[in-house]
Amino acid sequence: MSGLFCYCRQGFEPELAAELSERAALAGLPAYAKASRNDGYVALIGDDGAALDRALPWRELIFARQKLRLIAELRDIDPKDRITPIMAALAGGRYGELWSEHPDSDAAKPLAGLARSFANALRPALRKQGLLSEQDDPDLPRLHVVFVQGNHVFLARSDARDSAPWPLGIPRLKLLPDAPSRSALKLEEALLVLLDNDERQRLLKPGMTAADLGAAPGGWTWVLTRQHLRVAAVDNGPLRQHVLDTGLVEHLRADGFHWKPAQPLDWMVCDMVEQPRRVAERMATWLREGWCRHAIFNLKLPMKKRWDETRLCLDLFAEQTQRPLKVRAKQLYHDREEITVFATPR
């Protein structure tokens, strides 16, 4: 089998399938997507898996939590001996790490125990055959064994430089007791997923300035203060008192959709509930007018034609900013019917 295997949020398989198919077509690579609603994954099948892998970088994929390169699909394997057909399908190669996984779906979650125990059985067998390094080696590809059923397995590989560094593509974040709302996890994940290590160090320095549009009750403002940024929290609603007590926050009772800063800011973040096209246009105004240098914002998607709306909104944003920007967008684990966008000068 040749192609890609990507995890996604359960229920968003059609959106990921449409995205993968369109991106492959734009790259001039014939491929077709195999997807079923609520499976939590999509397989993109094509003649040249290596070319698809190169043409569709993980960071540029919006609805894919993880991107893997397919090796084989094994159906109807004997539960008494899963190792033999897997070893035969691998037929050489060498890997730096083994991840035994399952999609993040209701049907596949009961396979978590099997995936964990099978990794403990498969790891020594791989090492005995020289297929797996004795210690984790990030310079070698990672081997993924993905259980979708007890007798149905996908084998795939990933490059640590072009894939999510977390099993299932999900960063495990803990909601701290003083977080004003669960939405804080969205921004924490966005900073982790959409920015690389160098960008986090360069772009999030103590003393930088930011605006949080639609800030109440203060989840995203709280995350920014933990980075020691000074924040204008714009919302007519109340903020949690301990967020104000940081001394880094100015609460401005105004409409976040119409407010603008008196001086340019380093950052603007926005998680307001509004039509995605209106949000895209307003965010473009902020970047075009130079009111901020960097932005992270959410686009709330409709129930239907979500890939079409995503593409339209991102194209609209790029067109109306009228300046060269680096733009990344993802549907994060802590997102729901939305995607999160990061924009910064190119």
Automatic annotation (TrEMBL):
What is the protein name given in its UniProt record? Ribosomal RNA large subunit methyltransferase M
By its UniProt entry, which Pfam families does this protein fall under? Answer: FtsJ, RlmM_FDX, RLMM_N
* Annotated ranges, domain Ribosomal RNA large subunit methyltransferase M THUMP-like: 81-158
List residues binding S-adenosyl-L-methionine.
183, 216-219, 235, 255, 271
What range does the record give for the signal peptide?
none
Its main localization is: cytoplasm
User: Which residue positions are annotated as catalytic?
Assistant: 300 (proton acceptor)
- Oligomeric and partner information: Monomer.
Q: Which family does it belong to?
A: Belongs to the class I-like SAM-binding methyltransferase superfamily. RNA methyltransferase RlmE family. RlmM subfamily.
BP terms from Gene Ontology: methylation; rRNA processing
Q: What does this protein do?
A: Catalyzes the 2'-O-methylation at nucleotide C2498 in 23S rRNA.
- GO molecular function list: S-adenosylmethionine-dependent methyltransferase activity
Query: Which keywords has UniProt assigned to this entry?
Result: Cytoplasm, Methyltransferase, rRNA processing, S-adenosyl-L-methionine, Transferase
Limits of the Ribosomal RNA methyltransferase FtsJ domain:
181-273
Q: Which domain of life is it from?
A: Bacteria
Q: Where in the cell is it found?
A: Cytoplasm
Catalysed reactions, semicolon-separated: cytidine(2498) in 23S rRNA + S-adenosyl-L-methionine = 2'-O-methylcytidine(2498) in 23S rRNA + S-adenosyl-L-homocysteine + H(+)
Species for this entry: Pseudoxanthomonas wuyuanensis
GO CC annotations on file: cytoplasm
PANTHER family listed in its UniProt record:
RIBOSOMAL RNA LARGE SUBUNIT METHYLTRANSFERASE M, RIBOSOMAL RNA METHYLTRANSFERASE FTSJ DOMAIN-CONTAINING PROTEIN
Q: What is its EC number?
A: 2.1.1.186
Domain RlmM ferredoxin-like residues, every copy? 1-68
